[in-house]
Amino acid sequence: MSAATETQVKAKVGEPAPDFTMGSTKDLETLEEDVCLADYKGKWLVLFFYPLDFTFVCPTEILAFSDRIEDFEAVGAEVLGVSIDSKFSHRAWINTPRDENGIEGLKYPLAADITKLVARDYGVLIEDEGIALRGLFIIDPDGILQYEVVHALNIGRSVDETLRVLQALQAGGLCGANWRPGDELLTPG
User: Fold this and answer.
1) Contact criterion met (CB below 8 Å) for 58 and 102
2) For residue 24, how many other CB atoms are within 10 A of its CB?
3) CATH code, domain carrying 129
4) Which of 24, 103, 131, 147 has its CA 20 to 30 A from that of 53?
5) What are the catalytic residues?
6) What are the strands, taking DSSP E only, across 72-130?
């Protein structure tokens, strides 16, 4: 990461998540409902960035999160996907059947970071390409960034691992490697 980019990154684990307001597909018909960080106050948010609509790896992970949305909702979390594409491109992709590389039936909104400011604030913007890396962030109900992971463009994220980390954060204690819900928490000493 260049020094110029590094100084612009605002996202740091343990600190308030960078605020945002973006156009979205929350109202797929009119596309007139923006999404902002304040919408998720009091809830856990899994915020993830992906490079572009109508690509190859992106629909696999976007649909994997969609297919498991009930698991996220069951633990009080919402999911929001973000790319630098417009809300109009998002709608076209959501209206494209899955067998035609679309994401028809998506169960959570996509946000349009066409200014690239949000990707820059979260430290995932590839400046010279104008697209985002595969960054995933978990923000707690108080708006504090609790987790981040960034993948290379060619690697999709694991829904199972995201849920495991989310539930570990919610457990409120020390969780050892490979901790799963129902496992005991570690005790110091």
Assistant:
1) no
2) 23
3) 3.40.30.10
4) 147
5) 58
6) 77-83, 110-112, 125-126
The pLDDT, as a whole number, for residue 69 is 98
C-beta separation of 59 from 157 below 8 A? no
Helices assigned H by DSSP within 26-137: 57-67, 69-74, 87-94, 117-121
In a domain? residue 180: no
Pairing of strands 145-151, 77-83: unpaired
Domain that holds residue 87: 3-156
pLDDT at 144 over 80: yes
Residue 77, number of CB atoms within 10 A of its CB? 24
Tens digit of each residue's pLDDT (9 = 90 or more) over 105-117: 999 999 999 999 9
**Number of structural domains in the chain:** 1
The answer to whether the beta carbons of residues 51 and 98 sit under 8 Å apart is no
Longest CA–CA separation in the chain, Å: 57
